[in-house]
Structures are given as C-alpha cells and as structure tokens.
Specification:
The complex is a heterotrimer of chains A (289), B (259) and C (265).
Chain A: H1 27-32, H2 34-55, H3 68-80, H4 88-119, H5 121-134, H6 143-150, H7 154-178, H8 182-190, H9 195-232, H10 238-247, H11 251-279
Chain B: H1 2-6, E1 10-23, E2 27-40, E3 44-48, H2 55-63, E4 70-75, E5 78-79, E6 87-90, H3 102-113, H4 117-130, H5 146-159, E7 164-168, H6 176-192, E8 196-201, H7 204-210, E9 213-217, E10 225-230, H8 242-254
Parallel strand pairs in B: 3-8, 3-9, 6-7, 7-8
Antiparallel strand pairs in B: 1-2, 1-4, 4-5, 9-10
Helix pairs in contact in B: 3-4, 3-5, 4-5
Chain C: H1 13-35, H2 47-57, H3 68-99, H4 101-114, H5 123-130, H6 134-158, H7 162-170, H8 175-212, H9 218-227, H10 231-259
Classes of the chains: A mainly alpha (289), B alpha/beta (259), C mainly alpha (265).
Chain lengths: 289, 259, 265
C-alpha cells in the first residue's frame, strides 16, 4: 500500500510534483482502488437497506423501514402536495429560516464577546465564570424552559438555536485570539503600531480561521437544535414532517425528512467552507475528513 | 581624510545595561550584566555568541521590547523607551503575517504610518525589488521557502525607513547553502542602502563576512562583553583569504564556551 | 524570542474578586427577579426553590414517580452504555479507516451519508424499531458518539509522522505491524480528545432522547417539570444534567492526564 501524497504548495525555487507510480493493471489494483470500493460499499448499502425494508425483519413489520424508492416517491409527493398547508420546500424554508436567524443572532453576540473576553482581562473575569456555569448544560435541555417562556411559536425555537450556537462561537473566538503567536504583536509594535493597530491588524485576521471553525461547528449544532425543537412542538418544518411520519406510522415520511435535513445541513456546511476558502486563503488544510 | 572619518556620530549608546528576569517562584535570573556598547552611524556591528548568552535579550532591549533593569539605551541621544518605527527588527522565526501577501506584509509599516495607497505600494515594491523578490509580491508566506520568507522580513523592516536595523539570528533556521547566499544578499542590500545595523549571530564565518566590528559575548549567563574585534578587510570578503582565516582563528580561540 | 518571560507574581486584587462578584450578582439578580414577581412563578423558579426541590427530591418520589438519584442513575446507565458501545465501534473503525485503503474505501461513503444526519432525527425510526425503551435510547446515544470517535481516530492516524513510517518500512515492518506499533500509539492524544467530545455528544443526545420518549431519567424529569408547570423541576433537571456531564468530563480529564503523562501534544 503506498502512502497517499499530500498536496504540496508550489515553492518558488524548487520543483515539486505529485508522484504517481505507474503500476500494471492487475486484479489487486482494481480491487483496492478507492472508487471501486466506494461503489461496492454504496451498492451493498442500498441493497441491504432495500432487503431489510422489504422483508420486514426489523420488528414492526412493514412499518419499520421504507424502501429507498419509496422514500424518494414520498419526497416527490411532498413537493407537489401540501402537508399542513406547506409543500416540502415550504417546510425546508421554515426550518432554514429558524436556523439562519438563530445562528446569525448568536454569532453576532458571541464572536465579539469572545474577542472582547480574550483581549480584556476584566471582562474575562466577569463573563467566564458565568459562561463556565452555563456551558455544561446541553442546549436541548433548554427546550422545556424555552417553551415555558416563549410558548410553542417561533420564539422558543430560535431561542434554543441561539443557546446552542452561542457556546462554540464564543469558545472559538476566545481561543482564536489566545492562540495567536505573541511575537506577531512585537512585529506590529516595531513597525510603529499601537494597541489599536495590534488588535485590528493582528488579533482579528489571526483569529479568522478559528472563528470559521466555530461557525461550522455551530451550524451543525443549529440544525440539531432546530430539529429537536421541531420534534417537540411545531406546526411546520422538517422536524414536523418527521413527527407526522411517526404519528401516521409512515416510515417513508420519516426517512424522507431525515434525508432532507441531512442534505440541508450538508449544504450549509459546504457554503461556510466555501466562504472560508474565499476569506482565508492562507489556511493550510491538514489531512482530514 | 582624518577629519572626515572622525565625523562619524554615535547612533546607539548602551550604558551599563543589565537585565534580570523574574521567573515564577520569585527566582531571579540575571541575563545581562553591565553591557556598555556604542554603535557608530552606518556601521555594521555583529554581536557574536553561542546560544543562551543573552544576545537576543540585548537586541530586544535596544529594540524597546524589553526594558533594562538598570542602565540606559539611547538612539541619537534620546533614550529608548519602547518599540517604535525608528528601529526595524528582523525576527529569527520570520514572523510574517500569514494572511497577507508579500506585498501586504512589506506595506505594513507604511500603512501604519498612514501613507496613501499608491505611495506605500511604491515604497513596498522598491524594497521587494531590492531583496530580489520582484515576481512574488502576490504570493502568501506559506508558498515561499525559508530564505524567501526572511527576505520578505528584511524588506518589511526596511520599508519602514528605520534609522537602525536590528537582526536577531535571521538565518538560524536556514540550511548552510541558503545561509551563505543570504549573507551575500544582506551584504549587497546593505551596500545599496546603507543603514546602521546590529546583527546577532552565533556563526563565526557569518560574523566575519558581514561585520565592521564584532562584539563577542561570553558563553554563559549573565551575559557580559568579552572582546571587541575590528574587521577592516575589504568588502565583499573572501572566505578563503589568508587574513580572513587568521582573524577567524583569533576569534574562535578567544571565545570562551561553558556548557 | 526572549529566553525567559517576565511573570507577574501578583494578580491584581480585582481580577481575583470579580469572578465571585459576578456569579453572586447573577444569582442575586435571578432571585430578585422571581421574588418580586417581575417574572411570574410559572415561568421561572427562584434559586432557593430549586435548591429546596433538590433536597426534597432526594427522598420523595412525587410528583413524577422517582427519586432524584434514581433519575440520575438511569440517565448515567443509558449514557454510558451507548458511550462505551460507540467507543468500541467508532475508534477501531476510525483507526482502520485512517490506515487501510480498503477500510476507508468501504466505510467512507456510508459514514459520509450517516454523518450529516443529526442523531435526534433517528428518534422516530428507533421508536418504530425498538419502541420506547432502553435499546432505542442506547441506539441514539451510540450513533451520536460514533461520529466524533471515527473522525478523531481517523485524523489521529493520518497525522502520524511520515518519517517514522518510512523508518519502519526500512526495518521491513509489514502494514499491520506499522499500524499496531506506530499508528495507534501516535493517534492516542487525538483518541483521548475523542473520548471527551464523544462524551459531550452522547450526553446531549441522551437528553434529547429522554425529552421525547422516556419514562425515567433526567431528561424525563425536565419534560415532566414542563408538563406539570413546575419550572423548579425543569431548572433542577437542567442543572443536574450539566453537573453530571461536567463531573464525568473532569474524571476523563484526570484519567487522560495519568495515562498520557509523558506524551507531548
């Protein structure tokens, strides 16, 4: 097995290339090729799914699992028809709205606060203990009290999302500033900058990658929170679709909802990644998922 | 002739500079002891010493990033009280801003002074050309090799038009051949635009190649000045020249190393 | 870089006092807001009410059917079962995926499909499959803990120093030997990171699972508090969830410190 070569950036006075061995096309090469294995894996996955759904092995008979094509046709149905006065896109938009609203509000509050905490020791001393007190409580555990306070409307759902996304945003902004190389401040001082220049020209840009990592984590948490809130009490949204599927014993609807929410979460994460690549071109990627 | 050479002014004046650091547990660590040094205008002064002898601390005190426990440092007669743009510092670890291109990095100093965009771009391009990186101004630091990064560091410090250039073991992280190349580049750059330079290193050849005067520090803490050698060989220096080799032997013999 | 850093031996008095003041003001404000009726008692309970309930619940099963410690114990049991299962499956899978091409080729597409689905979304399916009982909850917790385990183990193996791998090859080590003797120990710091993250995920998902379908446990207690309009029960439940999670996290921290004492991260 050959180690994969990581992409190396071009260095001006060296020639660097990606070296690939030319190997004869034997059966072994084909069997261990990545894409072949991916294809095999996906095929087996869908076939197993179909088999399990058809044969009703997983308790509950036919209402335990829906076949892949059934899920697709159910989604198609939801696009054309309405469930509780909204089509699939309407529900998707309802959930996305809540996520975007909560996420934006939380980020707007948490990131400046985190930066401020890292820059000023006194603010840190005041806020950090409260933050540490409230941090261990999972956002989902706030659902009940949120419903007590805001009822079952939009407010309680957005509140949960804010609670959930606040923590990673603040933590990453805080750590992003704390982990800045201290000598960079020396550089700015030697070039004639003052404290304000230090903050503006070193703290902010240097903490961008960390802030973006925080935003990505927050976004996945936001989708989880909105789903949980909608599962508990909602009249619209992807969680509502799933709950309806559960109440009507229609696994196709449940799984359809799961697929759409996975796609939505994936899509928004890709968007933030693309934004990060645009804004932080200097950040090098380590091998990862 | 005589009168002209005597007109050299003293640029940097260190008087009885000492520095003691307080480690945790209230333990005192004396790093420098009674250093007195004078640097003439447009002189290339090299501070030579092995690792951990306090020479970097001395440079940082002159830069204003540390304050001396006793003694004073003055530039052009005025006491140094903090970092400032009249002294430029080139760091051992390059310390380039990774989120800015080469041009952005070099422009940093003029930008902090408030110069308008085209003026500072002109200044930056001039110094980028001076260090030999003309076609790389839109590259990011992670795309450059070590020698190129350090050249950016030098250009960045120069672009601020400091009175004194301070270099803290700038080539310590480079391989031997790149290091020789960079020494020659430094010589060339300095000859093109003369400045007062204080250069800290642990490499004897480098010191002899570059320096007008070499200040040798003792090899143990607290750091003290040991000897001062004047090098009046013609520039650029030949590493195989007989006089060069004699001075080299003198220098190596006279350093006291304690491990 | 300066060889030594000057360390301020004296922290200013204000910095030592401010945290205490801050927390005290917070609780005092909370108590004030409820006692004076600015916030009605149906919406928020005063800290004193919560503390009173805490002591009461230690001995009385009313009104939700179990003592506080029984709820806590049920939750901890569920959480740990799911947690250990996810470690058991996720860590070896992630480690294998990081090194063996075949493992990655086969497992990755399925992982990438499952990964964006929030664990909470699986709840209705588990109700279909397992009903409202222990297995369903453990499944949710297990799925929740799986993802961070796999990711961290994978990245841990990928970050093995390639020079060490090349060195092992020159000694004639086989793929499996390199994996066992080099990749796995190299990945240990990341694996311990996974332990912490997976625990947090498992704990969160436990609460979610219990909120929706349960008859005991801390999440259930929170839901009952809402249904019975007893905000002090809700707050007590939230606080207990947070406290338990924090304590277990600290315990793992201590274990990690002992086991990884010599390794520099």
């Amino acid at each position: 097995m050959s180690e994969k070569n990581c992409q190396q950036p071009s260095v001006a006075n060296e020639t660097v290339g990606q070296f690939t061995d030319r190997r004869p096309l034997t059966l072994r090469v084909v069997l261990t090729n990545r894409w072949f294995l991916h294809g095999v894996s996906l095929t087996v996955f869908f076939l197993t799914w179909d088999f399990l759904a058809k044969s009703g092995i997983l308790g509950g008979g036919s209402s335990a699992l829906a076949r892949p094509l059934e899920v697709l046709s159910q989604l198609d149905y939801l696009i054309d028809n309405q469930l509780a006065e909204l089509s699939l896109w309407g529900h998707l938009w309802a959930s996305t709205q809540r996520v975007l609203l909560g996420f934006t509000l939380a980020a707007l509050m948490a990131v400046p606060l985190g930066l401020f905490m890292a820059l000023n020791r006194y603010v840190n001393a005041i806020v950090k203990p409260l933050f540490d007190l409230l941090k261990p409580m999972p956002p989902i555990s706030w659902i009940s009290i949120s419903i007590l306070w805001f009822g079952i409307g939009e407010g309680s759902k957005v509140f949960i999302i804010i609670v959930g996304t606040f923590v990673p945003c603040l933590l990453n902004a805080y750590n992003g500033v704390r982990l800045v190389e201290p000598e960079l401040y020396d550089v700015v001082r030697m070039l004639g900058g003052n404290r304000r220049d230090e903050i503006l020209h070193v703290c902010f840009p240097a903490s961008f990658p960390a802030i973006f990592a925080g935003l990505q984590i927050s976004l996945s948490i936001a989708w989880t929170c909105v789903l949980a809130a909608e599962l508990v009490s909602a009249r619209s949204g992807l969680g509502y679709i799933i709950v309806q599927g559960m109440n009507l014993s229609q696994p196709a609807m449940v799984m359809g909802g799961m697929v759409v929410i996975a796609a939505a979460a994936f899509g928004t994460t890709m968007l933030v990644s693309a934004l990060e690549r645009k804004l932080c071109p200097w950040k090098r990627k380590i091998a990862g998922l | 002739m005589e009168a002209a050479t005597q007109a050299q002014t003293v640029k940097i004046d260190c008087r009885d500079v000492s520095k003691t650091f307080i480690q945790k547990g209230c333990q005192e660590v004396p790093v420098l002891e009674r250093i007195s040094l004078q640097v003439q205008e447009n002189e290339f002064l090299v501070v030579l010493g092995p690792g951990q002898c306090g020479k970097s601390t001395l440079l940082r005190i002159i830069a204003g990033l540390e304050t001396p426990t006793t003694g004073t440092v003055s530039l052009d007669g005025r006491e140094v009280s903090g970092p400032g743009s009249d002294r430029g510092l080139v760091f051992q670890g390059y310390m380039l801003f990774p989120w800015k291109t080469v041009l952005g990095n070099v422009e940093m100093g003029p930008m902090l002074c408030g110069l308008p965009r085209n003026e500072r771009r002109e200044i930056a391009m001039h110094y980028i050309r001076l260090v030999g990186l003309e076609n790389f101004e839109d590259h990011y630091p992670h795309q450059l090799s070590g020698g190129m990064k350090q050249r950016v560091g030098i250009a960045r410090a120069y672009a601020n038009k400091p009175k004194v250039m301070l270099l803290d073991e700038p080539f310590g992280q480079l391989d031997a051949q790149t290091r020789v190349f960079m020494e020659q580049e430094t010589e060339r750059i300095w000859q093109t635009e003369k400045r007062t330079v204080i250069f800290v290193t642990n490499n004897t050849d480098e010191a002899l190649f570059l320096g007008d005067r070499i200040v040798v520090m003792e090899g143990k803490l607290p750091g003290r000045l040991q000897t001062v050698h004047t090098v009046d060989l013609p520039r650029p220096r030949d590493l195989t020249d007989l006089h060069f080799l004699e001075m080299r032997k003198d220098l190596i013999d006279s350093s006291v190393l304690t491990l | 870089m300066s060889a030594y850093q000057e360390i301020n031996v004296q922290t200013p008095f204000a910095l030592k006092v401010l945290p205490v003041v801050s927390v005290t003001v917070f609780f005092a404000f909370w108590q004030f807001v409820v006692t004076t009726g600015i916030v009605p008692e149906t919406m928020l309970a005063a800290p004193t009410t919560v503390i009173k309930l805490f002591f009461v619940k230690l001995f009385e099963a009313d009104p939700d059917g179990a003592l506080l410690q029984e709820h806590a114990w049920v939750s901890i049991q569920e959480a740990f079962s799911g947690y250990f299962l996810s470690l058991l499956v996720g860590l070896p899978l992630g480690l294998a995926m990081g090194w063996f091409n075949v493992a990655e080729g086969l497992a990755r597409p399925i992982f990438e499909i499952v990964r964006p689905i929030p664990p909470v979304a699986w709840i209705p399916l588990t109700i279909f499959w397992f009903g409202i009982g222990l297995p369903g909850k453990i499944f949710i917790i297990w799925i929740g803990g799986l993802v961070p385990c796999v990711i961290n183990a994978y990245v841990g193996v990928k970050m093995t120093n390639p020079t060490l791998i090349q060195m092992a090859r020159t000694y004639g080590a086989s793929d499996w030997q390199i994996f066992r003797q080099l990749c796995i120990p190299s990945a240990l710091p990341m694996v311990f990171g996974a332990l912490q993250i997976a625990l947090a995920c498992c704990w969160t998902n436990l609460v979610a699972a219990e909120l929706l379908a349960a008859d005991s446990g801390l999440g259930f207690m929170i839901t009952m508090g809402r249904r019975l309009a007893l905000p002090e029960m809700v707050v007590l439940g939230m606080f207990m969830v947070g406290l338990t999670g924090a304590v277990i996290g600290l315990a793992i921290d201590q274990v990690e410190k002992r086991l990884l004492a010599g390794i520099r991260r």
